[in-house]
Amino acid sequence: MKPKHPVLWLLLGIVLIAVIAVAVIQLVSRSDDAPATPFSVHEDIHELPTTQWTRSYGDGSGMLPDLRVLDAGPGRALVVVAVDVSGYTATATQLDLTMVDLDSGEEIWASMAELDPDAFDRQWSGPARVGEAGYVAFSLRNQDEDRQWSSEIRLYSTADGSVETLTVDGYATATMADETLYVAESDGEGREIAVRAYDVEDLGAPRAEFGVTGTGGQELCVREQTLVIGEYVTGSGGSCWFPGTAVAVDRTSGEALPWSVPGTAGMQLRLDEDGLVAAGGDGEEYVVTRLADDGTQVWSVSVEEGASTNGYPWDDFVVITGGDGLVQLDLETGEERWTRPDVEDGRVVLTMPERLLVRADDELLWLDSATGETLHAALQADSDVWSPGASPSYVYLQGSGWLIAYSHDGDEAWRMPLKARHFGTTAGGHLLLIGWDGTEVSLLR
What we know:
By secondary structure, this protein is mainly β. Helix content is 5%, strand content 50%. The chain contains 1 helix and 37 strands. The chain has a 6-stranded antiparallel β-sheet with strand order 16-17-19-20-21-22, with no helix packed on it. The chain has a 4-stranded antiparallel β-sheet with strand order 1-37-36-35, with no helix packed on it. It is globular. Mean pLDDT is 78; it is low at 6-37.
C-alpha cells in the first residue's frame, strides 16, 4: 500500500531526525569532558555579598590549629579539620572530614580518623584539592619510641565517605590519579623511596612497584603519564608546584624520565599539560627552563637574581618579576613577548585570560596580558594583597581586614570589611570565608 501523502511523511521524518539530533547535541554538550572554566568563582557577585550560611567546628574550648577547605567539584567542598593537642598541625591526634553541599551548607557525609595519642611522633598529610577520580587519599603516620614509622593510608569515596584502609610498615604518603592509588614509602628521610600503584578496587596487592632515589622528599604529583616525586607539593587549579628537588618517572613502568633542571635554591617546578616549567636562583642568576613531557629541554632563559614566576595551568605564558622588571615569555618558545622595566619589585597577584594583575610599590596594576600595557592603576597601601579567586566579571582581592571586588578592568564594585582573623578562599565555584582560628566556614553570595 502506498502512503496517501508521501511528501508529508518525508517532512515529518526530517523533523523527527532534527529533533533527535538536537537532543544528542544537548546531551553531548553536558558531557563531563567539557572544558572547565578558568575562574574559581563560577557566578559573578555583583553587589556586597551576605553570609548565606556558617558551619562551626570545635567545642568552643579553644583554637583548632588547622582547618582546610578543599574543592570537591561544582557545589561541593571537603572540609578537613585537624584536631591537635600540641599546637603543631602535622601532629594532630584526630582528623575530621566533612563533605559539604555549598548551596545549602548541609553535610553530605562525615568521617573521623584517629592517630595514636601515645605515639612518640605523629603526622598526617592530604591533598591540596579533591581530584576527579571519585576518591581522595590521606596518610596518617605514627612513630614509636624506637623511631620506627608505621602508616595508615585512608582512601575515601567522595560520593558517600566510605573508606578503605591500607597499612604500611614505614613512612608513607599517597595520592590519587584516575582509578589508581599511588603510595610512596621510605624510612622517613626520603633517601630511598618505594612507589607502589594500587587499583582502587583492590588494595590487596600493588599492580606496579618501583624504586626512586634523589628526590629529597616523597610528596607525589601525577599529571598525564608522569609521576613526580619531590620535596614539597602545593596544588592550584590542577597544577603542581615543587619548591625543591624533584624527579619524574613514567607512572606505569617506573622508568626514570630524563628531566634535567638547574640545581638551584628556591626551585619551583610547575607541571602543566605539556611538561614542566622549572624556575630557581642561586643568588646570582635566575634560570627558567621549559621541559617537554619526555624530559627534553625546550628552552632555557637566564635573568637577573631576585625573580619569581607565575603559574596557572590555563596560561600560555610565563611572567618573570624581579631583576629586569616585568617580563613575559612565550611558554612554548621562551621568546620574550614584552617587557616592563619600569615595574620594579612587582608581584603577580592573579592572571586571567586577558588580564594580568600586578602589585607594584603602592599600586595595583591591571595589565593587558597580550601587550603588557597598563589598562588601569589603583592605589593600594597594603603590601600584603592577594586574591582568593576570580569570576567571569570580577577579581576578588583581600588585604588586612577587607575584601574587595574589582571588575577585570579595575573598577571597584564593592568593599567588604572582614572580622579579625578571617580570610577568603574558593571551592566548588563559590567564594567562602574561613575563620583564621579554624572554627568556622561561611559562604558568601
